[in-house]
Design goal:
By secondary structure, the protein is an alpha+beta fold. 51% of the residues lie in helices and 14% in strands. It has 13 helices and eleven strands. The strands form four sheets. Strands 5-4-6-7 form a four-stranded antiparallel beta sheet. A hairpin with a 2-residue loop joins strand 6 and strand 7. The C terminus is likely disordered.
């Protein structure tokens, strides 16, 4: 105990020696709280701007290129709604003030030539009922109504929205359009990254700041969209499950593989999947009408931000090196331009079938 007391005393002495030597400015707590409110308002405005930009770039990709998603499609309205819970409980008050919203969803964006625009939906319209169903009050009731609205839209059924516009009630019936069944979501992280999980696409705010224009953003989203559309995530999960069987068998014989076979199987074809997502994603961009010429430059800038990508080692080993991705995109653009000039369908080229080996003389099939 004596040793412990001495140790604590010495620690306190050392800590006091490292303390600041200047006075701390006294501040008014009310002013601090007011500044906190202001910063929350600035935050929701900035996050909202990123979300709207993400939606505007994603929308043409998932609607115009939906044929490249095969049977992985649903439907979309072409409008974004917002209520006071759009950014979570911490920012509820700020959201309500900045966007003048309460529990009822308010139209924040209508895409040009979308079902929402053709039906007459306008920015500022406040939804009061969906297909004759209304919510009385409270977060849970409105969340349930919004869920039912989304289900109706995604199913592609005619959806009637009762809205209030400048205080007047208006009925709007919309027919959703087909789209890829994958939506983009903003991840509030500073890292330069994007990801797909087989159901949705995540793009970080760091990536939103990194891309120079909407064409570069479309390249990123198209790549992740292609991962989902081509079933890469499910394939990796399936490979992992098959590899895990070997881990289990090894464990039955007393060998702890520490998941070696499962992890190795999950990374099988990883670079091929990434290259395919680059290739198919570029076709999605072209189909959606995005400019392609500057797309390869994205990988030169990524090499500056992450020099390890040039050699493709370390954490980037599962991806092709950035020089290869640059050259591959240039070649893919040439392929697409040739098809556009000839009027050929914008469909990615499939692998050519391997020629069958000749059967031995006298053999019967």
């Amino acid at each position: 105990m004596r040793f412990l007391r001495v140790f604590c005393y010495i620690t306190l002495v050392l800590l006091s020696a490292c303390a600041p030597t200047t006075q701390r400015i006294a501040v008014d707590s009310a002013r601090v709280e007011e500044e906190a409110r202001k910063q929350r308002e600035i935050a929701v405005e900035d996050i909202h701007a990123d979300r709207m930009r993400l939606y505007k770039v994603t929308y043409p990709l998932i609607t115009k290129a939906h044929a490249l998603c095969g049977d992985k499609t649903d439907h979309i309205l072409g409008a974004v709604f917002i209520n006071r819970m759009a950014f979570g409980k911490e920012f509820r008050e700020a959201t309500s003030k900045v966007f003048d919203v309460q529990d009822a969803p308010k139209v924040a964006l209508v895409m040009p030539d979308s079902p929402a625009e053709r039906a007459g939906l306008r920015v500022g319209d406040v939804v009061s009922a969906v297909n004759g169903i209304s919510a009385k009050s409270g977060d849970e009731e409105w969340a349930e109504l919004i869920r039912k609205m989304n289900e109706s839209i995604e199913a592609g059924t005619l959806t009637t929205l009762e809205v209030r516009r400048a205080g007047a009630p208006i009925s709007v019936t919309v027919e959703p359009q087909r789209s890829c069944a994958f939506r983009s979501f903003l991840a509030n992280q500073d890292v330069i990254n994007a990801a797909a999980d087989g159901k949705k696409i995540l793009v970080t705010r760091g990536m939103m700041r990194f891309v120079r224009d909407d064409s570069e953003l479309a390249l990123v989203i198209g790549h992740e969209l292609a991962h989902n559309a081509m079933g890469h995530i499910d394939a990796k999960r399936g490979n992992f499950a098959l590899g895990t069987i070997l881990d289990v068998l090894a464990a039955a014989y007393g060998v702890n593989t520490q998941g070696m076979f499962g992890n190795a199987a999950a990374s099988a074809y990883s670079q091929d999947f990434e290259a395919e997502a680059d290739y198919v994603g570029l076709y999605m961009m072209a189909t959606a009408g995005f400019e392609l010429n500057n797309a390869p430059q994205f990988w030169r800038r990524m090499a500056v931000a992450h020099p390890s990508s040039i050699r493709g080692g370390g954490m980037m080993a599962s991806h092709p090196a950035s020089p290869e991705r640059f050259v591959s995109l240039e070649e893919a653009i040439k392929e697409i331009r040739t098809k556009q000039a000839s009027g050929a369908p914008l469909q990615p080229e499939l692998k050519k079938a391997e020629p069958a080996e000749p059967m031995p003389s006298g053999a019967t099939p």
